[in-house]
Amino acid sequence: MHKDTSHTPRSTAAALLPLVGGPANVTSVAHCMTRLRLGLADRSRVDDAALRALPGVLGVVEDGASYQVVLGPGVVGRVTEAFEALLAADGGSDTPTADASIAPAATPAGTVIDPAGTADTPVDTADAPAGTADALARRGAELKARQKRRDATPLKSALRRVANIFVPLIPALIGCGIVAGVAGLLTNLEWLPGITPALAALSSAFMALIAVFVGHNTAKEFGGTPVLGGAVAAVVVHPGVTEVTAFGAALAPGQGGVLGALAAALLGTYVEKRCRARLPGTLDVLLTPTLTVLVSGLVTLYVLMYAAGEVATAIGTAADWLLTTTGALAGLILGGLFLPLVMLGLHQALIPIHTTLIEQQGHTVLLPVLAMAGAGQVGAAAAVYVRLRHDTTLRTTIRSALPAGLLGVGEPLIYGVSLPLGRPFLTACVGGAAGGAFVGLFAMLATDVGATAIGPSGWALFPLLAGGGGWAVTAGVYGGGLLTGYVVGFAATYFFGLGDGTARMRLWGA
Q1: Which of 313, 343, 377 is the last residue of a domain?
Q2: Are 251 and 367 in a shared domain?
Q3: In this structure, are 195 and 59 located in the same domain?
Q4: I need a surface site. Which of 53, 56, 191, 362 has the fewest CB within 10 A?
Q5: Alpha helix (H) ranges present in 190-304?
Q6: Bridge partners of residue 70, in order along the sequence
């Protein structure tokens, strides 16, 4: 059933609160780009069925650490604000903390699978009506249950923490990236020469100090004092480091970038915890912050900045070589494998790589290639919509999720349609591979396509595009890649992804 969206953020928040057990059951509140994340005292007090049926709720997801209500981009921030106001009025919630997770796995029909805990092997099931959203919801729940045991693996826990550090920075990256694009356009057109320097300063200021924010978030995530994490990481971008010599060469401000800041703040948090565990209270207030800054700062200057700088340089060199030398093949592999990476939660490992490339080169050449996976998913969903003409429920689900998919929010389609069906997920990967190969081919022809920020995808990425050939050429290549992904994803699904095309098929085995 298509959900009514004529509700207000306050009415949505007021409806959500009793369904999650009331104010006394909520221990923390946070949000990311699409999800309201709640810490709950008693999970059993949640009315899942009523919550999923609530207008405006796209689905729910549990990652073991929080209960997440999927509301969609733009909406979630306003609902979270209203939710917090209700809790503050009642006195039932702790102080909210910033969220930091990658976009969730959700379905418009209300079934959600955690990207970090989705099955990577087929589910052996009996025949089920493939065209019913309810059948897909049940299969999605089975996938989720099978993988829930794997959610707490050390790798996935580490990746979640990486996401918790970097994702809160995405809004600033987006805003500064768009301002940088406007400044570049005005400069090329020689318009408003009096304001372009101001726009350039606005767009570059955040990137000049991003190490401080990374240090702050790292310490916060790992249980240290956030401001101490920021203080230790600040040395990475301080102009005075030019007077310091490490490994026979003078340091440069920003050397090591976000990787150096991350390492510095991790070390600082470790030193701080060790000090607090050993120093008496009378000395702790003075010596702990002093030793944290001193010890961590010196190690950062004489070891970490140099080492992280070498790693960052290697990342930039490898990314450039990968696309300029093996562009079509690299694009095919990256575009084809990104949906499975999202499915397994491993895409979070790419966040610091994207950020390093943006900091180092001004844009990340990997994101536009990876964005082609979403184009393949849109094409696959469109094919399912066309082939299953008599299934009005599933078609309504796809119709409600396609606009978000076009804007790069593809999880509702992935986890509500293609993944439970099985074959359409594979054919969506084929579409993503084709789109990635298209973009990679042009990189081999010296027309690189980059993004000045991470977060947006699909059509929402156009304002953030950058490349050596100018915005128009870059946008043309990126648009061509999207079109290729749509067409190939549609064709592969239409002809090979739906079995005999009848209204019944075997999920994960049609």
Answers
A1: 313
A2: no
A3: no
A4: 191
A5: 196-208, 210-221, 226-234, 257-278, 281-299
A6: 35, 59
Same domain (yes/no): 114, 254: no
Q: Is 176 a catalytic residue?
A: no
- Condensed to tens digits (0 to 9), the pLDDT of residues 207-253 reads 899 999 999 999 999 999 999 999 999 999 999 999 999 998 899 99
224, 273 contact by CB (below 8 A): yes
Rounded CA separation 283/298 (Å): 22
Domain boundary residue among 96, 117, 152? 152
**Same domain assignment for residues 250 and 360:** no
In the chain, the number of structural domains is: 3
CA nearest neighbour of 20 among 43, 58, 46: 46
**Cα dist. 305→44, 111, 215, 310, 385 in Å?**
48, 45, 13, 9, 52
Closest CA to 160 of 118, 116, 119: 116
Does residue 510 lie within any of the structural domains?
A: no
Task: Give the span between the Cα atoms of 443 and 247, in whole angstroms.
Answer: 36
Q: What is the pLDDT at residue 245?
A: 92
The answer to whether the beta carbons of residues 61 and 114 sit under 8 Å apart is yes
Instruction: Please report, for the domain that includes residue 69, its CATH number.
Output: 3.30.1360.60
Are 309 and 255 in contact, with CB atoms under 8 Å apart?
yes
Q: Which of 32, 176, 275, 429 is catalytic?
A: 32
Residue range 158-181: mean pLDDT, rounded:
86
| Domain boundaries, position 214 | 163-313
Give phi and psi for 28, each to the nearest 5. Answer: -160, 155
Any idea how long the chain is?
A: 510
Specify whether 348 is located in the same domain as 485.
yes
Report CA-CA distances (Å) from 205 to 125, 200, 283, 451: 54, 8, 37, 18
Distance CA 430, CA 499 (A): 16
